[in-house]
Specification:
Layout lengths: L2 H24 L15 H14 L3 H4 L7 H12 L5 H21 L11 H16 L3 E19 L4 E17 L5 E21 L8 E6 L1
Antiparallel strand pairs: 1-2, 2-3, 3-4
Length: 218
């Protein structure tokens, strides 16, 4: 066997050996296989989730009322008229307003809260306060806190006046004393649970940021 032919056979044997080694290490690929897709990093997944949320329902609305409900549509209209409006921020303000208005009513001091009351609500509060004073009764009250708070309805009319109705479950200590200082009703040390349903109103887009209490109930 001449030298060139021998060299060719040796090279062919080496090539076959290398091919078999590569097949054993890398495996074989039969037919069409989908290309490997790199799993997104956690930051990439968070960005995708954020984009889905941005393109879907407003969480500031659906966290408080059912999606596609009349209340949700009213809240969306409020946001269109006043982009800075936030349902969550409104409810935080309503919590503070509830304590301020309730305690002013209990003390019989309505002047400081008059700007936050409609004329009808102010008159009804004043009537009760005047009757207590005529009987010589004095209220000793201490606000404990808001146990529950829930947005129960939202409406807006053609004049852009919005109404938001909130249910409060408040806790306070309350005692009534007569003109001689004797306990007439209640217990100054007992915590009483009080349920109220209040409706606040405001013209959306107006310069006045304050909401007014326009209706009360239980």
């Amino acid at each position: 066997m001449n030298s060139p032919l021998l060299q060719l056979l040796v090279l062919a044997g080496i090539a076959v050996f290398l091919i078999l080694r590569l097949r054993s290490v890398l495996g074989t690929r039969d037919g069409y296989e989908k290309p490997q897709v790199k799993t997104p990093e956690p930051a990439q997944r968070r960005q995708t989730d954020f984009e889905v949320i941005e393109g879907g329902p407003d969480p500031d609305i659906i966290d408080h009322v059912p999606a596609d409900s009349p209340a949700a549509n009213a809240l969306a209209q409020m946001k269109r008229l006043e982009p800075s409006f936030s349902v969550g921020e409104f409810l935080s303000g309503a919590r503070g307003a509830y304590e301020m208005i309730l305690m002013s009513f209990e003390r019989g001091d309505l002047e400081e809260i008059k700007p936050f009351l409609s004329a009808e609500v102010y008159e009804s509060f004043a009537l009760v306060v005047n009757e207590r004073e005529a009987k010589g009764l004095k209220i000793d009250a201490e606000f404990v806190g808001v146990k529950e708070l829930q947005l129960v309805d939202a409406e807006i009319d053609e004049s852009s006046e919005a109404e938001l109705t909130v249910r409060f479950v408040g806790q306070l200590k309350n005692a009534v004393y007569d003109r001689d200082g004797n306990l007439a009703e209640g217990d100054p040390n007992a915590i009483k649970t009080q349920r109220d349903v209040w409706t606040f109103a405001r013209i959306m887009g107006s310069d006045d940021p304050n909401w007014q209490l326009v209706a009360t109930g239980e």
